[in-house]
Amino acid sequence: MSLIEFIKNTTDKKKRKVYIFLLAFAVVLNIIENIIPKPVPWFRIGLTKIALIIVVYSFEFKYILLFPVLRAIVGFSITGLLFTPVFIWSLSGSIVSAVVMYIIVHTGLNKFFSIYGVSISGAVFHSLTQWLLIIYFFNLNFSVILPAVLGLAVISGLITAYIADAVIRYRDGGSF
């Protein structure tokens, strides 16, 4: 049984435990990713999307929408960056990403997208949201680097999908 099937077929109490675990997992990944040196300024792989992908496939919309909000508040509180521009960009990108992934997974579009397509779509929309916010708030036009930004989003989407798929498929019968 995959992790998604386990979550969907479990009791509400266990679902809450899994949700809290995934939230804590995402916060830890967020902190780790802040420590990792960035190959390109402002670029992050988006490891927290691993947990978000699992949530998108396993939970209802209200929990999917709440996930990036809680992750950002807790994660950025720990790192001391709460309510900074980085927090706003991350939160905005994550919410848009979660909504896009939800739409793909829970509508007829799911016939056309694997977990890789879902993850790449989330990463691309996350990056586009952040890019548009930078243009809006700082009146900076980075059109020249947009292809590179989107290329990196596709790569990060592939990486997070690969890891999320491995996590979803591997379940040794452990319990929450």
Structural features, described:
This protein is mostly helical and 176 residues long. The two termini are 15 Å apart. The chain has seven helices and no strands. It is 73% helix and 0% strand. Helix 4 packs antiparallel against helix 5 (85-105). The chain has one domain: Orthogonal Bundle (Arp2/3 complex 21 kDa subunit ARPC3), CATH 1.10.1760.
What keywords describe this structure?
single chain, 176 residues, mainly alpha
What is the alpha-carbon Rg in Å? Answer: 16 Å
What is the typical, i.e. mean, pLDDT? Answer: 90
Would you list the SSEs in sequence order as H and E? HHHHHHH
> What's the helix count?
7
* Global geometry: globular
CATH class: Mainly Alpha
Looking at the chains present, what oligomeric state does this protein adopt? single chain
Give a count of the beta strands, DSSP E runs of length 2 or more: 0
Number of domains: 1
- CATH architecture type: Orthogonal Bundle
Which structural class fits the helix and strand makeup? mainly alpha
Strand coverage percent: under 5%
How far from one another are the termini? 15 Å
CATH topology descriptor: Arp2/3 complex 21 kDa subunit ARPC3
Compact summary:
With 176 residues, the protein is mostly helical. It has helices at residues 3-8, 12-35, 48-58, 61-79, 85-105, 115-138, 146-169. Helix 2 (12-35) packs antiparallel against helix 3 (48-58) and helix 3 (48-58) packs across helix 7 (146-169).
